[in-house]
Amino acid sequence: MSLGTSMIVPATPADIDAIMACERRPGYEATVGRWSREEHLAGMADPTHRYFVARRADGAIAGFVMLQDVAIEADSILVRRIAVAEQRRGHGRQLLGHALHVIFDELGARSARLGVRAYNASGIALYSSFGMREESRREEQGHGSAAITVMTMTMSAETYRQSRRANP
Ligand SMILES: CC(C)(COP(=O)(O)OP(=O)(O)OC[C@H]1O[C@@H](n2cnc3c(N)ncnc32)[C@H](O)[C@@H]1OP(=O)(O)O)[C@@H](O)C(=O)NCCC(=O)NCCS
């Protein structure tokens, strides 16, 4: 899938530096997790994970998305992590669109799910714009003393197909 100047392609171990830099962008620590090189290498080797990067024409990585719980005809596949190198340039939409295409059209999952902190307005806006909806909320202990509210957002295969018919 391509849009503008970047293409969504499967990630390789050569992309791990760029993926780690993306996770570690200033300000992202409040909204997205970070893995070590070893954790990413293990994830890429794990058949229940899928990684995709947005690769620009000049080869630079504009963002990535990681799926977990991948299996054919899975009940639910988790969008574990998504982050872009530069916000509001359409890469998040491109990456999530591809992730949902893989989840529903290629893997035939019954639903997609993800966790997002309740204060992450840009993440929630992106997911809502695809038709994902809040299913539940839970409190998690943050690094400080304050608890963090994490929303689970989901989308069923039926909702995905309806939205594809409405916006082919
Ligand atoms: C969340 C994130 C992936 C969105 O990616 P992005 O490339 O900035 O978003 P896009 O430019 O593709 O925007 C897609 C849509 O999301 C919504 N959106 C994104 N950022 C928004 C913001 N700051 N305010 C309101 N809506 C926003 C809009 O609906 C937008 O569509 P529009 O441009 O047609 O209005 C990106 O901001 C990011 O990497 N954030 C830091 C890491 C993170 O929080 N990851 C998610 C963890 S759950």
UniProtKB/TrEMBL annotation:
SUPFAM superfamilies according to UniProt: Acyl-CoA N-acyltransferases (Nat)
Ranges where the N-acetyltransferase domain occurs: 6-156
Keyword Secreted part of the UniProt annotation: no
GO molecular function annotation: acyltransferase activity
The enzyme's E.C. designation: 2.3.1.-
The UniProt record lists the keyword Cytoplasm: no
Lineage: superkingdom: Bacteria
Segments crossing the lipid bilayer: none
EC class name: transferase
Key words of the record: Acyltransferase, Transferase
Name recorded for this polypeptide: GNAT family N-acetyltransferase
Species annotation: Bosea rubneri
